[in-house]
Amino acid sequence: MPNLRFAAPKEKRVALITGGARGIGRASALRIAEEGRDIVIADVLEANGVEVVKEIEALGGRGVFVKTDVTDFGSVQAAVEKTVETFDRLDILVCCAGILGLEAPFFEQSPEQFDKVMKINVYGVYYAHQLAIPHMLKRGWGRCLTMTSGARRAATTQVPYGVSKGAVYSFIGALGNAYPKQGVFVNGVEPGRALTDMVVPRFSAEHLANPGTPIGRYADPEEVAEVIEFLCSERNTYVTGAVWNVKGGTG
């Protein structure tokens, strides 16, 4: 085994997952829980979030649901405080809370629509990192993960969403280079399209069966969660400030 200079022993770490009540957030919560982590689900979807906690407990782990509006700094702060109050630490942050918003031409995108998407997709990420990272710095170890999207490269019918994901991409690079010597890595995952509630209702069954990707299908949320779990683990000793594509070959 090589000497991995940034390696840390595996511990009973604690993960806070925004948007963890369904989709990639839920899959990530369960996958990280399988590694023996305690999980806090921060989401507005209470019934779904409580069900995910039950799934975590069925795996033998500990889970807590905290109803959280990521557009509200105080609400995110309460989720972080509940995490530390319950488990006495916060080691892993996964930001999956996000919305697509309205798919429409630019001139049909109102300022209110733009504001709504930015508050959830950008402000929510900003708040969560600003509140969580100090707890990681105290322990000298932390892993943060945020979702980006290929829409950041110019999706003409998703301008607010694309702009929000471009902002997140820049955010990951900035923070990924800020704290690695202190043991805190910040990364992103760009999943292309996964079979979640954000994707499936927008397409026909025929398209979903043959979407034209090189691999011949869209991802299952669990496949994206595998990459997220690695980036948030002790096995990740050198990746920070990066966005990993999980796209089935679409680049």
Structure description:
The protein has 251 residues and is α/β, with parallel strands linked by helices. It has one domain (14-245): NAD(P)-binding Rossmann-like Domain (Rossmann fold), CATH 3.40.50.720. The protein has 7 helices and 7 strands; from the N terminus they run βαβαβαβαβαβααβ. The protein has helices spanning 23-34, 46-58, 73-87, 111-139, 159-176, 205-209, 221-231, and strands spanning 14-18, 38-43, 63-67, 92-95, 142-147, 184-190, 243-245. A 7-stranded parallel sheet has the order 3-2-1-4-5-6-7, with helices on both faces. α4 packs parallel to α5 (159-176).
What Rg do the Cα atoms give? 17 Å
Count of β-strands: 7
Could you name the CATH class? Answer: Alpha Beta
Amino- and carboxy-terminal Cα gap: 32 Å
Indicate the percent of residues in helices: 40-55%
CATH superfamily annotation: NAD(P)-binding Rossmann-like Domain
Topology overview:
Layout: E1 14-18, H1 23-34, E2 38-43, H2 46-58, E3 63-67, H3 73-87, E4 92-95, H4 111-139, E5 142-147, H5 159-176, E6 184-190, H6 205-209, H7 221-231, E7 243-245
Parallel strand pairs: 1-2, 1-4, 2-3, 4-5, 5-6, 6-7
Helix pairs in contact: 1-2, 1-7, 3-4, 4-5
